[in-house]
Amino acid sequence: MTGKPTPPALDPASLEARTGSSYPEPWGSACGARDKRALGDALGLSAFGVNLVRLPPGCPSSQRHWHSHEDEFVYVLEGEVTLITDAGEQVLTPGMTAGFPAGKEDGHHMVNRSDAWAVYLEVGSRSPDDACHYPDIDLHLPAAPDGNYRFTRKNGEPY
After folding, report:
1. Which CATH number do you get for residue 82?
2. Tell me: the pLDDT tens digits for 80-102?
3. Strands 72-78 and 132-134
4. Residue 9 covered by a domain
5. Beta bridge partners of 141
6. Residue 86 falls within a domain, yes or no?
7. pTM score above 0.85
8. Is position 115 within any domain?
9. N or C, which terminus of the chain has less Cβ within 10 Å?
10. Which residue range forms the structural domain that includes residue 86?
């Protein structure tokens, strides 16, 4: 074995925050002020991802979406977000959780409608067979077993 082993713990503040979104325009700018720290990646996790997300007032977490093969879990740490699903709206406060089973066609996202930043953990499985569907807009993210994801329109045309 060469080199020093990676410690199994870290301070999230030591990681660079990824600000914005990978969505093509006009969808990307709506989520432009959120920031994420990829905790799972930094710790070498491969079966599931964990992000620490900071969401400023007025910002959505993502476009409303659902996953074909990926479970998602959210745990609110600070602030308040409004969860929007096909069932309606629900306010989530610190200590509350939400879960979205793979394959359940229930578009969801959260919006920070408060005057303060919200902070939450998002956890998701990492299935190479996953496709992401966006029911409200002309956007689709097809499965990419090679890990090279590219957004398309719903008809398959690339952005």
Report:
1. 2.60.120.10
2. 999 999 999 999 999 999 999 99
3. unpaired
4. no
5. 132
6. yes
7. yes
8. yes
9. N
10. 23-141
